[in-house]
Write a structure and sequence with these properties.
Strand order of the largest sheet: 3-2-1-4-5-6
CATH superfamily of the largest domain: Glycogen Phosphorylase B
Number of helices: 15
Number of strands: 12
Structural class: alpha/beta
Order of helices and strands: HEHEHEHEEHHEHEHEHEHEHEHEHHH
Shape: globular
Radius of gyration: 22 Å
Helix content: 40-55%
CATH architecture of the largest domain: 3-Layer(aba) Sandwich
Number of domains: 2
Largest sheet: 6 strands, parallel
Amino acid sequence: MTVETALAKRPRVGILDHASSAIGGAQYVNVCMAEVLSSQAEVELIHGGSGYTLIDLAHGFGMNLSHVRERILPWLSEVPSFGIPGAQPAFRQVRSSWALTRPYDVFIYSGLTIPPLCFAKGGLAYIHFPMDANMVAQARREGVNPLRERAYGLVWRAQRSSYDQWLANSDYTAGWMKRRWDQPAPVVYPPVEADFPQVSKRNLIVSIGRFTAGKRSKRQLEQIQVFREFCKKADEPWEFCLIGFCSKAPEDREYLAMIQEAALGLPIRLVLDRDRRDCLRIVAEAKLFWHTAGFGIDELTHPESAEHFGIATVEAMRAGCVPIVIASGGQRETIQHGISGFLVQTLEELAETSVQLVNDASSWTAMSETAKKRSLIFTKEVFQNHISAVVAKMLR
């Protein structure tokens, strides 16, 4: 049997990244799925082609993706959701869903909105957060007549049932899936794996997150304001490092320029689009981790603006950083307040809690160890084993 014949007999798995065009936590989830599934199937990572390449992902996350292929579909960038009514007419939407999903034995949707109708033999939907309403609610919002509304309801039921398994990345996400889509989903926490170098800790605070404006901002500008106040009260000099990727979108580049200007004159370092090993070394040296996504939002009206899980938070905990974060979304699931970190409500509380902790070395040491232990319940191995089992069941 030739190599080509052997490969042809392997099942095909397609993983659609419909979460973001920039590199972040959702993309790490996708490559972890691709990595483990490529040992048992021919895997393609599907995306719109803007923001990153497969090589960028392998470099950014330090992973071997040599057995994973890339399928770029530029039209995906024009389809924020596969809900109906949506960006495409109904017939065109069904036709594009067929072309997107039918080539695979198992199709995996990894995203933030209603997934496409799945025509693969098996379908898995891994939801990072349900950003949009269900199709019936969309139809009512559009003011369609009752007959069309019933039609959308039938399509919505068909779309949901076309997937054999739905998964949520956190209890927070699962709760909103039930609320918005009436779709129950077990929770499979995202993978967290990081090989931190053995280095000495120093007076360093670190923050990790995409530099992006709008509702999904990680609020780095506010963090700089907090750091300014923190420096006035801390007993010793401290540094602050902001790590993240920034897309080429004009609004994101403008936001980055604002951050750079705000950091002038302060012991602040911005680390942009760097190799993962460099980033891991910086986090390993840090004592505190800050995260402010979700600050100032009303979770009942804008739940999508909260942190849906918080991979970066758990990674920092694995390195012995004590996390001090806004009490928002999935962060409440990862951190035990006052035990493995702190959940705060305001920027003032973020500054005060940080000052109190760093001025008490014994408390920081104890909490650093507890944070490490807590992080070990969120592992890449557990995630990959679960995904492998789900896909293997579909391929039987």
